[in-house]
Prior knowledge:
The protein has helices spanning about 40-50, 115-135, 150-160, 175-180, 195-200, 220-225, 245-255, 270-285, 300-310, and strands at about 1-5, 15-20, 30-40, 60, 65-70, 85, 95-100, 105, 140-145, 165-170, 185-190, 210-215, 225-235, 255-260, 295, 315-320. It has about 325 residues and is α/β, with parallel strands linked by helices.
Amino acid sequence: MKALVFDNFGGPEVLSIRESEEPEHSKSAVIVRMKAIGLNFADVYRRKGNYHLVGDPPFILGYEGAGVIEYVGEDVHHVKAGDRVGFADVPHANAELVSVPADKLLPLPEGISFETAASILLQGLTAQYLTHDSYPVKDGETILVHAAAGGVGQLLTQIIRMKGGQVIGLTSTKDKADVAKQKGADHVFLYGSDWMNSIKEVTGGKGVDVVYESVGKTLLNSFEATKTGGTVVFFGMAGGDPEKIDPRMLMDTSKALIGGDLWNVLTSHEERKRRTAELFEWIMAGKIFIEEPTLFSLENGADAHRLLESRKSTGKILLIP
């Protein structure tokens, strides 16, 4: 089979398409022929060596995708060859064939394409748990969403609006601000502006009820923009490590800091299926909208990485074997 691989850490140029060994058959797993593969910043971090990789080179990136089952292990009984499935956290997805543990298989309904599944699973399940588990959004609340034009940011905005909240978005450019507004943000401010004071102005001096913070280095600013008694949900460090938080500040302002990680939520096969089914239902019912992804062939994976790192894209980038 063909796979997108690299031997040394570095820039996109280390990636190349290569003939690789097919994954081994396992009693408790299936082999999926990939139709669409999601590209995420975690893939960039692994390629650079920021995230630990297990094993020896050549390394195969990718954790998210969708395809058709070709082989079913003898201990797997809830799926069959020919079924359409997806997954959000299975390694070595940047290949024509992937071995997927049975408990990580997510069935695709007829109304969900391979491209939609590969575009939504990781980011969509993240936005879902953030708004249901980390902080259950309530009707009438005003919520600040960092990186509002990004994949998770667009979905957070739509889910918050669906649940009756108002959204203030933060983006890096005016073009991205337009994207955030199209997804339902009531106000959008640029990172280069005095956004903390702007937020105070549009909230009558109080600040927002909740912040979904994914940048990291803006964590203290997020607290500044939060009302007394408000909450900051910290779930990413795309812009760099956050400063340390003084617990006395939390006490003095009655503010809360909540951490969020998807893997603490996807704890069982039933939990994965339940959450994914809800996510797909929102899409098929038109409650949330997914932009058309940007497609690259698996052979042109290096170009896909370059586009993602440029931060000029606003929708999902997919690799197509």
